[in-house]
Every structure is written in C-alpha cells, then in structure tokens.
Amino acid sequence: MSQTTSSTPDRGLRCKPMNVAFTDRGWTVPGFQLLVPTGPTVVHAAGCDDMGLCHSVLIGAPFTAVIPTWATLLTIADSDPSGWVIALKPGVLGPVSQEAFCAVPKWSTSWDPFLREAVDTLGALHNADLIDAACADAFADVISAHIILRYGHCAGVAEPARPLTRQMLTRIRVFVHEHIAETILVEQLAVLVHMSASNFARAFKAATGNPPHLYVTLERVKFARTMLCEETIPLVEVAARAGFQTQQHFTDVFHRYSGATPRAFRLAHQNVGS
Fold first, then answer.
1. Helices (H), the chain
2. What's the predicted TM-score (pTM) here?
3. Domain range annotation of the chain
4. Band of the pLDDT at 9, cuts 50, 70, 90?
5. Which of 41, 69, 137, 268 has the smallest C-beta neighbourhood within 10 Å, fewest atoms?
C-alpha cells in the first residue's frame, strides 16, 4: 500500500490489509470501518459508544461487519490476520449519500456477495502490486456507496430465516468437541455456518430443541462424566478439561444436570464397577 504524504494526508489511508491495520490503527477522520476477514481469520470487535452502551461482534468469512473506526479489534487464535479493513468516510460522498450514511446500521454484520467480490479483487490487485493510493480510495468510495444504498435505510430489517442442515450441525458438534476446554461463544458457532448470532440461535433451537449455550453446557457435563467414569484425574483438572472456569462452577452445573456432585458421581460409579 502506498505511503501517504503531507500534502495529501487522506490519500491511501482508507484501505489497509488487516495485518497492517492491527499495528497501525489511526484513521484521520471519524466514521465507520468495514471488516472483511479472509481465510480462517476471525476478528472480535468491541467498544462502548457515546451513550455508554457496550457493543461486540465476532466476524469471519464470508461475513463482513461495519463498526466505528474507534472500535478495538482482536483476532481469535490467529497471529497473522488476513483480510481488509476499509475506512468509510462520509466526507468523500455527495450530500444525499452523506445524509443516508448516518442511517447505516452500526455494529452490523452481513453476508454480501458484492462486498466479498470487491474485496477479492482489491486483494488480487494488492498481491500483484498493482494498487496505489488513488485505486484504494476508489474502492473505498464504491464500497461506501454500496453499503449506504443497500443498508442505509434498513437497519431494522431482519435476516431471512434459514434452517440448519445436518452437515452444519455436524460442523458445530465437531467444533465444540475440539474446543471443549475453551470459552465457546455463540458468535463463533454462528460464523461456522455463515449466519448471524441471532439467526443461528433461533435456527439451532429449532433444530435441536436447546439454545446453543445450553448445548455447549450439556456437552461439557457429558465430557466430564466420561472422565469421572474412566479416569482418576483430580476433580479440578476434570473441571478445567471440560471448560469450566472454576471448581465451584463445575460442581454447581454438574449437580444441576446430573443430580449429583462430581465427587458423588465418581464414587457411585466406582461402587458400581466394584
């Protein structure tokens, strides 16, 4: 990406590769930014607005997200994030578009083929060293206008409902099993099946009868039961391996869904085995 000069301070600043944006977070003009992760990169964006309300979104391909330029960005288990961060500055647009820009949903995510195609083209030009500041600005202008026209007046429109297929449920189950010892967010599961968190939660409950967070909790309890039955590792380690933050939390949740404390469950199983 071309370096800026003092005579044209805004040139080349509106589009940055994601790994560059993570080390150089200064945008010169307040506004919004478009997060476009590629490959396996998943980004967590968070921050509090002027009213003191806290916001948080988790975004991964093929989704994109529109967030304020001041938001804090972190990657989920990815030391070399790939993708693009594009500043959306209303000042580059005409008066009508600038007015519409104020209605763009903040902290919103979308599955938008046009945006993905535009960013794929931008990435190809960047990799071929064919992009300069003016070209990057042109992409930012086109993308800004597209977001305003498509989303500027539909902040309250809900996403169309989509059912979860058997393949999607298998993908979720495998992910939960592989990450059972870690914190698992509903947003992470939603990204796996290319859905928003709210739509995913509704679709998951419709498909399984349980909300996602309860499913994860029951899987943790099931995994803990297996360890209590088959191994003699300390209870505190059983709790950690099953993803419970504290021993007390493990005991409370296990008792709630198993009818016995972990220690009593282990003793009962040992008595049955003997």
1. 18-21, 95-101, 113-127, 133-151, 166-178, 186-192, 197-208, 212-230, 235-241, 247-258, 262-273
2. 0.54
3. 15-151, 166-273
4. very low
5. 268
83 or 241: whose pLDDT is higher? 241
Percentage above 70 pLDDT, the chain = 80
DSSP letter for each residue of 47-70: EE-TTS-EEEEEEETT-EEEEETT
| Residue 243 to residues 51, 253, 257, Cα–Cα distance (Å) | 34, 12, 16
Contact predicate 69/124, CB 8 Å? no
How many CA atoms lie less than 13 Å away from 23 in the CB half-sphere? 7
The DSSP code for 82 is -
Residue for token digits 């305003």? 148
Query: What is the residue type of 130?
Result: L
How many C-beta atoms lie closer than 10 Å to residue 146's C-beta?
A: 15
Q: What is the residue-averaged pLDDT of the chain? A: 80
Range with lowest mean pLDDT among 83-92, 179-188, 253-262: 83-92
Amino acid making up residue 44: H
